[in-house]
Amino acid sequence: MEVFYVYILYSAQLDRYYVGHTHDLGSRLLKHSTAKGHYTSKASDWILKYTEEYLSRGEAMHREQEIKSKKSRKYIEYLIGSQ
Predict the structure, then answer these.
(1) 3-class SS at 17?
(2) Label partner for 27 (CA 20 to 30 A): which of 9, 51, 53, 83?
(3) How many domains does the structure of the chain reveal?
């Protein structure tokens, strides 16, 4: 059974969060740290701060959009603190 993840990265250099989803967390994190021309390529210090697991890609995508739609740093920091 494949598991999908919603994840939150943080860059101290940019003082920003990045929210995404994937089925292969390790590979995705590696891409974030090495990709060129991607939002996360603006900094080199991204760290994984939070994850949630889902049984379908649809659920993970929905949750990612839910988090992003709040446009709230306070909400993201609440999620991170609740883990």
Answers:
(1) strand
(2) 83
(3) 1
Question: Is residue 74 within 8 Å of residue 20, measured between CB atoms?
Answer: no
Strand partners for 17: 10
Q: Look at residues 28, 35, 31, 34 and name the one whose alpha carbon lies nearest to residue 60.
A: 28
Q: Which domain, by its residues, includes 32?
A: 4-82
Apex 74 CA angle, 82 and 7, nearest 5? 55
Contact in structure between 54 and 23 (CB atoms under 8 Å): no
E-strand ranges in 1-83 read: 4-11, 16-22, 47-54
Query: The pTM is what?
Result: 0.90
> 69: domain CATH number?
3.40.1440.10
**Cα distance from N-terminal residue to C-terminal residue, the chain:** 24
User: 3-state class of 44 per DSSP?
Assistant: coil
